[in-house]
Amino acid sequence: MSYPKELRENTRIDERxxxxxxxxxxxxxxxxxxxxxxxxxxxxxxxxxxxRGSAIFHIDSEPYEARSGDVLFIPAGALHVGYSLCEGDxxxxxxxxxxxxxxxxxxxxxxxxxxxxYLEGRVHLPVxxxxxxxxxxxxxxxxxxxxxEFTAKQPAYQLMVKSQxxxxxxxxxxxxxPKQLPEQATAQYVHNxxxxxxxxxxxxxxxxxxQTVAGAAKRMNLNIHHFCKxxxxxxxxxxxxxxxxxxxxxxxxxLLEGSLSITEIAxxxxxxxxxxxxxxxxxxxxxxxSLLRKQQSETNRIPLGEPIA
Length: 309
Known about the structure:
Elements lengths: L19 E11 L4 E6 L4 E8 L1 E6 L2 E6 L3 E4 L5 E5 L3 E10 L11 H6 L1 H4 L9 H4 L8 H12 L4 H24 L2 H24 L6 H7 L4 H12 L3 H19 L4 H7 L5 H12 L3 H12 L9
């Protein structure tokens, strides 16, 4: 189902390589029926964790009431809006993430079987899992932990948030997937996906070479439109995004090593133009490569007169 472009929200995701964001939404002194979440849709998945007050959220035209402690799962692309059901203040968390958050699990057959069907939209989790199976509420502590990690931003918090979300999806999959997706459908999907593995491995080994959508589609014997659709469905990224992330990851490794100039690094990862490389790096990392190198240099600098251990 598609919705008008004017209702599409460009949700802010700060880190392209860890595409997850957690927002705390508050609405003060609301009356029953007041709007608390405007009508919109986006390409990301969203989990609403109700913290205070009560509200009704319409998700693809279906109404779902939520009170403190309730959790709603909104599939990618779903049109949704929210209204107050109480008098007073309302607050809730909105955990928004893209399926590409879990792209490094692509080679894991268990992930492919149990979690990927939800990320790709072949099946959807119930909007209110605990309403169908109350034991699902036992897993919601993982959302609290993810929010605490995201707020504190301790070293490697991104990995903690990703791990907690992946664990939650896995636990919910145990509950619902066997009833939603027949075994033969999963087997057919895995067969189709295996065809792309060779291409993914080729990209990751040869990202410095010239890579084009047309060339990749030809390798897969698919027309460009069908190839692009399947590639994004499998990886959560466009083909160009996937290549660029591979290049940026390698560039960051080389920058932190410190032995090559930025121009040399740009060439190593397939960017002949150093200005283009800088723009690409900043797009995916949020900072210029020269600044990363400067910060690394300052971190490694030993103060004058301080003994070396």
